[in-house]
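Session log. Operator J.P. requested a structure for one protein chain; no other inputs attached. Running the standard single-chain path with token output.
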Amino acid sequence: LLQPAVSVGNVGQLAIDLVISTLDMTKVGYFYTDCLVPMVGNNPYATAEENSTELSINAEVYWLPSKKLVVLQIRSPFIKNKYRPFCEALLSWVKGSRCARVVVLSSSHAYQRDDEQLLGTPLRYLLTPDLEKAVGGLMQELNWKEMEKVAAYPGISDTDKVLHIPGGGITKLLFTESCSKGIQMAVLLKFCSEGDNIPDAFVLVNYLNEWLQLVKSEVNSSSQWKIPSSWRLLFGSGLPPALF
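Structure written below.
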């Protein structure tokens, strides 16, 4: 299962858009919940006038049997105090559906990094203990950086370290609950700022592709992804028409 967190810059959701559009995934249903702000809109992945008027809502499920991949796309923010009920419902569905692994695409505020996090790549990963046993060695081979824990009381004590994902929305809760429930979950995230976050989405989805090899890697890593038609309305259409 691949899904976004509703986090800073909506980077995870934009990256999920690229996956669904590029792999031409089939919509198979909805994730019905009262934890998200209700919304409805036209088909964000329309390819012709005939399918442009299909309706989309706040949480939809897509799949690609050939890759054993299910994607949950979330398109609206959470209602206040509804993080935990959503987390419980989602992880219950994950277990009931017998999903082997869950990958969450997320982001975190770049301006709230500590000194260690300022070094090197802006990309980080987290693995639950159950998944660490299976793929931890591969992450080492890829030379990926694990999300650092930071001081719980900066300037007072540097010995107590905690996981801190500012701007990450439900990310930390999903991860810690998956650790306690024995669910194999990975979190892939990018430090970023609010603005035109399309470049961040490309970086994050390429990061995902390094591991899962969803598409064949190319020298120009942006050209391997198909831009959804709905992106024409983003950020004053900041992408050249040739990309659509």
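Operator note: The longest strand covers residues 102-109.
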